[in-house]
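User: I want to check something. If I give you two sequences, will you return the structure for each one separately, not as a complex?

Assistant: Yes, each is folded on its own. Here is the first sequence with its structure:
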Amino acid sequence: MKGLLAFFEGGPGGLKADESQRLALQTLEDFVMSDQERGVQVISGPAGSGKTFMMKALVQWMQALERPVVLLAPTGRAAKVLARTTRMRANTLHRQLYRPVEEALMPGRGLRVRFELKSMERDEPCVFVVDEASMMGNGSGGGEALIGDLLQQVYDSSSWHKIILVGDPYQLPPVGENDSPAFRPETWTPWGCTFGRIPLEGRYRQGADSPVLDLASKILEWMRESATAPSSRWWDAFSDWVEDYAAGGSEDDPRLLKGIGLAVKDFRLHYEPGQRVFLAYSNAWVSRFNNQYRTLVQRRTGTRPRDGEPLLVVRNQYLAGGQMLANGEEVRLLRKVGRTHRHAGMAWCNAVLEWVGLDGEAREFESKICLDLLDSGQPGLNAAQQQALWQARSLDKEEERDPYMQALWVKYPYAQTVHKAQGGAWSRVYLLLEKPYSFQDSVGYLRWLYTAVTRCSDRLVLVQPGK
């Protein structure tokens, strides 16, 4: 049987492993074949270091060995990218770990859905591969305790299972964290895990002369310099890079656009669903771009989506039959049903939507949509709006399920925040060069910039906010 290295070098393009990759591949092969209990292995590296090639080779090798492997990712978008890359089905961590449970509330408030950890029974040792592991939290920052729940589910089934984490340690960490806990040994050792880490180096994605990877590499240099000696000198170096990069563009194919209006027009010229995105730091800029783009294309503004328009899911939602729409996935509005109406002080409509699941199958479903959320400058319904829904629900005692509480939370997908886009990849990315004031240090901003730049697989178009 061929080893992992042969599958790595035998793929399309004839990529030859360098010394660090040969060592990483051999370490990974030894880890999978060992009798080690509670093993956790991390493959970490910056953009273009070969992580994707390694995952593809790992899946092909495991299949050749007829060994079971489960592919996972933190978001629906990342899971679809992983499935497309490996040509094997991938699931979100949420789908793998949790199941919805309905429980009764106080009289007159019907039912609510909570999530509990699923048990898992697998007799044969299995390898669980988690991509985009930098997004996994342990609950300390206020988010879900994905790491602990994954360990509990996997090792309650069998201590002979193995976990492989793949990710970029320089991307944005989970909310509330300074770095990614998945890459820290102290996260795993209290659970009795044997932890190993394989650092990758080199540049392979997009070609060695890729401007995108060149910028990503420079950002990493500035990040290391700022971590040891805090300074704002990197901003001057970045400004010089932007000037040089812009000089390589043309009128028909610009690399730098001055003003949001020019960005909207260029975005329209090059728009392809799922292949183009405008990225910003703040939800306010995201909302502004989406509104201007829709006004230009459809000659309309406001909260009324058109039939056939794509929408971005911004909250996990379980559908009838147990299928889960994950935060970050896209759906398509097929048609609106009935009239727009108001409930709890907000505008709503009934809609028939289409969703392509991780299995590639298109499904139709019905849901209510909050039109006020669609083009607001907020990531979701605020506390006051959610409280208004609860108060309105208490007045209706006839139904146990409240369709407004179970409504799908969606936004327009043309522009997104970098946090929301994490785990995705687009061939043409428009990046708004705003300097977020919420970052108290240069390293935090550079992480954000690095994460934004590495969402691009081909053409990066920089956008200056203008007046």
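And separately, the second sequence with its own structure:
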Amino acid sequence: MALPQIEEVRNLSAEQLNEQVLDVKKQLFDLRLQQATGQLEKTHQFKHLRHRLAQLLTVEGELKRKAAAEAASQAASAATSEADSEASTQSAPVVETTEAAPAPSEAAAETAAEEE
């Protein structure tokens, strides 16, 4: 029996991927149980199922990264268009000035100078 091909996995939907992952994990559990009880005859099934699980998880990760990249590009394009529209309608910027507290190193230097 040949190892499963990843092209088969790439044609699955996200829901089918999740179902397949759960099914393969259950099959691996059953194989481990059979091995522990001495009933397992076809030990090569471990290799096939682990290979299939790796394929499923790889494709699942690819889909997640692709969706995240699309979301990021949409957010970036939305931010760019929003910034462009703000720039065209924006008047002079309003800047509030408040007196900031001295930095801790400045405050320590001032107290050291006062103590001398």
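Because they were folded independently, the notes below concern the second chain alone. Residues 44-89 form the longest helix (46 residues). The two ends are 87 Å apart (CA to CA).
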